[in-house]
Inverse folding.
């Protein structure tokens, strides 16, 4: 499949896991823009994609910051002029932060981090990308899509995950609202509940999955599911899918 | 039933609807503290309760403000010294604000209002009241309780309710986390999904329920359900109930 | 409170737990009819209620059998002529049967037992009691109610509970359908998710709750919640509540 | 892609919609067996697949009948000896039957039809195919899969759909139980909530979707999603997806 010269994809939140794999997968069809707060997070994968004869650009921006995000889209316009947006992935996961604590030990800063990354971030990102996706309804090779990375905490609160779950569940329902509003206008908004740890070298934060590598989710498998969501026919959109290792108890 | 001289109840968020009715209902058993941002919101019901021979005090405080809330609890210690907390109701509903708008017309201030009132507010309130409720596990006439007022938007996003739903769903899962953490320690955290408009004089914001008064929920009926939740035996706690008019489609 | 001389309540499925306690609780307000497959199941509680100066009658009938159920209501007409039905409780729990087995060891008879007790039974019972409850909308001291006893398996399948969960979840959604159809006509249909073992002498079937009695639900507490559901104002019906011991993980 | 000479797929419940399209899609990779109660339902699609140089066989059997289903699998052994089962689709939808009636007009036969087709049928089919799928864990080109066709009624009861919803929701939780039991053994059990009418010539039963063809789901799009589910990597199984037309309100 040739890489499109009319449409691009953007991935907000790139690290060694889902964001990287999604960028690689979508780069088979589109030039991809990678957003991360630090060039360290994207530079290797940008190089890897470009070396493979496909196209990627990295932009340093905090996607949860309204002004920074606007500036990023101005940069995109200059870097890949004339291209329209076909797919946007919101993959910012502020989960690894040390906010897995009993409720009475949490500070309001812990809460802020979760809400900013999960809800404000998707809000800002949505306000930037949805007008662009709407412009692509005619012409895009697949229905223009916004795909959001959720987690078990998106549907379930628990003892040590209170502020993370508050942020993830608010994010999930925001994505659902966007699906209900923009689906009928031709934009596909989907939410993926990633129920398990990602198989990346430093994945130490999710104790349930310690032990055998069998218990981790391949980020490439997540990327494949995101690509599938993007290519669904408009007569059969999925709003939500769950993804977990075969061995995971749920 | 005599009003307790050892335990009190607090209602955060008092207006003409649920907060007022809950304060009246709980005042049959406990002195009640009413919190609202403006004395206008509580002064009539405080007077009404005190005139009836029971006890109420009103405190002006923004419960979503950490410092203001701490100051409020200092005031409570002075006003009703020695009393312990048996029940706390979080009823702050920033819903009536004009944020029922298409997503692309919303500002990040609209989002802030929802998150502040729904999530930050419950977070702060929870951090203040849960240590007090834990101290009451021994001795309280009923299991010490934190009851949170939710809404349809707590479980469902929709076109015009995106930021409200983001806040309410985050709040709901925060309450669920608190239930899972503090239930085993004897504190009952319950969440009520109020699925309909409240029957108060100025209830004009919920168009589905325009028309006959039959379609509105009596705030006294909500208060009765909150009282029931508070008095549930510790062997049979409800974490969540829904409440809607018999005539409501759902 | 005097026992009504115009309205009665019926409990289908009486054993040592929820059914017995519900019958006792509702007998404070209404004459109660107890249905069970064997007189052994109800005779002691019928005697206990009648000895207390209230009124109970026991009828031997398999409520999952259409003809037997019709005959039972004929008997009721003769035994308590002129009384109208205010509350009906469907509490048949075929759960304790030895169908907690790996899927490939189950027989289709195991499935039949679950579907018959959970779905056919509620279907038949609903067809018998709903016309009677509709006749009571005018005049009943509280909104006429049908209350259904559910379980954790009503919302969740699992390895050893497949056929039980199939039956309970079908029952739950049937109850939800009835709530949506008959709520607007004034009949309150509610479903209670009992998430834990009941504290009865022979409660050995629920291994999670072995050990301390603290982990069991008091059937009296369940009965109190059923009474509360029955007495809810028609402007604030609950369709579903969960009930679990404070100490239960969920 | 060459058609496998080692593994086959089976589709139970073939009509003009999902079953036919799924058989066509899976025939690109596997010989397919089509089960239906009448040869009329499968003969055209069997001919179409075979004419295209791929392989299909049709078997007349009522998959909800235990003995008939066993006989069908004996026939399969003879017709395609040595082949192992890679994918099984349970697509029997007894929904179009005239059971969309107010509850009090339903007969227990209406209920039986729903439970038989939805729950007994999946139970029998599961008991037949799961042992075969377990044998294919080693060697199958994709994780051996059982995919179940659900509907809106699988998660929601309503006025006119009470018996259908009872059957579909029981079926859904049965599928979930199977996923929890057999996922860790390497078999992928997935449930698809088809939320809308299927675009087939005679699709008249779903009034919400009358009018423009835009409001119908393409059965080919459903088949594509089923194929995607079958090919998911074992580190990232989806247990449930929803599928609806972009224009559908939900």
């Amino acid at each position: 499949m040739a890489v499109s010269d009319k449409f691009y994809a953007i991935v907000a939140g790139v690290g060694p896991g889902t964001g990287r794999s999604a960028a690689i997968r979508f780069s088979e069809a589109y030039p991809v823009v990678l957003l991360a707060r630090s060039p360290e997070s994207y530079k290797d994968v940008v190089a890897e994609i470009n070396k493979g004869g496909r196209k990627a650009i990295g932009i340093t921006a905090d996607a949860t910051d309204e002004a920074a995000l606007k500036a990023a889209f101005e940069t995109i316009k200059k870097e890949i002029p004339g291209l329209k947006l076909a797919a946007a992935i919101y993959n910012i996961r502020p989960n690894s932060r040390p906010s897995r604590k009993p409720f009475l030990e949490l500070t309001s800063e812990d809460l802020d981090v979760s809400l900013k990354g999960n809800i404000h971030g998707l809000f800002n990102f949505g306000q930037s990308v949805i007008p662009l996706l709407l412009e692509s309804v005619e012409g895009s090779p697949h229905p223009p899509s916004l795909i959001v990375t959720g987690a078990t905490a998106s549907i379930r609160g628990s003892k040590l995950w209170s502020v993370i779950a508050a942020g993830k569940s608010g994010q999930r329902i925001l994505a659902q609202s966007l699906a209900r509003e923009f689906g009928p206008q031709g934009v596909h908004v989907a939410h993926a509940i990633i129920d398990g740890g990602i198989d990346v070298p430093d994945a130490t934060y999710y104790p349930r999955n310690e032990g055998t590598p069998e218990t981790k989710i391949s980020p490439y498998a997540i990327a494949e599911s995101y690509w599938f969501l993007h290519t669904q026919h408009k007569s059969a959109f999925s709003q939500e899918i769950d993804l977990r290792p075969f061995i995971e108890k749920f």
Q: What stands out?
A: The CA atoms of residues 21 and 210 of chain C lie 22 Å apart.
